[in-house]
Amino acid sequence: MKDKNELYFPMVIAITALVIAIISGVINYRQNNLSNLESSLRDTRDQLQLAKSDIADIRMQTVQKLVDAELAYKAQERLEDEKNELRLDLSDAHDRIAELEAQVKNLDQTLEKKKHVSKTRKAGKTTGPKQSGSTTTAIRDASSKSAGHIALSDNEEAEPATPGTADVDIYTLKIAKQLEQRIAENISKKGFTAKFPEKSKSMSMANTTTVFYYHAAYKNIALILVKEFSDMSGSKVTLRKGASPFKQNKIIVHIISD
C-alpha cells in the first residue's frame, strides 16, 4: 500500500505540473492575442485619425473651391452687367451720332438754301426792277415758308408736357401678362397711356428697371413714372436721358424682374 502511495504521489505532481503548464500556456497565448489586438486597435485608431484629418482637409479644400467658384461667378455677373451697360451706352452713342448727323445734314441743307437765296437776290439786282420784284416776291414766299416752319417747331416745343401727352412704350423682361395689365392700370391713374410693344432681337435691355426720356421738357413727367414704378416694385428705378432721335414726348421704360 505504501508503495502504491509513493507511486501515485509523483504522478499527481506530474499531472498537476502539466495542467499548470497548459494553463500558463493558454494564459500566455491569450495575453499575446490581447496584445496583438491592442496593437491592431491602436493602429486602426491612428488610421482613423489620419482619415479624419484627410476628410477635414478635403472638406476645407471643397469649401475653398466653392468660395472661389462663387466669387468667380459674381465677378462674371459683374462683368456681364458692365458689358450690357457698355453695349447700352454704345447703342445710345450710335443713336446720338445719327441724330447729330441728321442735324448736320439739316444745317447743310439750310446753308445751301441761304446760298441759293443769296444768289437769287444778286441775280435780281442785276436783271432790273421787273425781275427784282419777282425775285423779291419769291424770296418773301420762301422766307414766309421758313418762318412758318420755325414757328411750327416752336409751337411743338412749347406744347405743355403732361402725362397725357407722353408717348410711353414699356418693354418688359420676365414679367407676367397679369402684371403688365396691373402696371398699365396703375399708371393710367396718373394720366399715362402705355403701350407694350414686342422687343426686337437686336434691342438691348437695361440691367435694372430704367425710365428713358428724350427731352428736358419731359424729365419731370418721366420722374412721375420713376416714382410710380419704385413704389410698385419696392426697389430703385433709374432715370436716364436717351440719345435716340425720338420725338420730344417719347418715354421708354425697361422693366426688369428681380
Structural write-up:
The chain is rod-shaped and about 175 Å long. It starts with a helix and ends with a strand. The protein has helices at 2-127, 129-158, 177-188, 219-233, and strands at residues 167-173, 194-195, 210-213, 238-241, 250-256. The protein is of the alpha/beta class and 258 residues long. Mean pLDDT is 79; it is low at 128-158. Helix 1 packs antiparallel against helix 2 (129-158). It has four helices and five strands. A five-stranded mixed sheet has the order 2-1-5-3-4, covered by helices on one side. It folds into three domains: 1-94; 95-158; 167-256, 2-Layer Sandwich (Alpha-Beta Plaits), CATH 3.30.70.
Kindly report the oligomeric state of this protein: single chain
- Morphology call: rod-shaped
Strand order of the largest sheet: 2-1-5-3-4
Pattern of helices and strands: HHEHEEHEE
Largest sheet: 5 strands, mixed
Supply Rg.
48 Å
How many beta-strand elements? 5
Weakly predicted, low-confidence segments: 128-158
What labels describe this entry?
about 260 residues; alpha/beta; Alpha-Beta Plaits; 3 domains; five-stranded mixed beta sheet; 4 helices; 5 strands
Question: How do the helices and strands line up, and which of them pair or pack?
Answer:
Blueprint: H1 2-127, H2 129-158, E1 167-173, H3 177-188, E2 194-195, E3 210-213, H4 219-233, E4 238-241, E5 250-256
Parallel strand pairs: 1-2, 1-5, 3-4
Antiparallel strand pairs: 3-5
Helix pairs in contact: 1-2
Can you give me a brief rundown of this structure?
The protein has three domains: 1-94; 95-158; 167-256, Alpha-Beta Plaits.
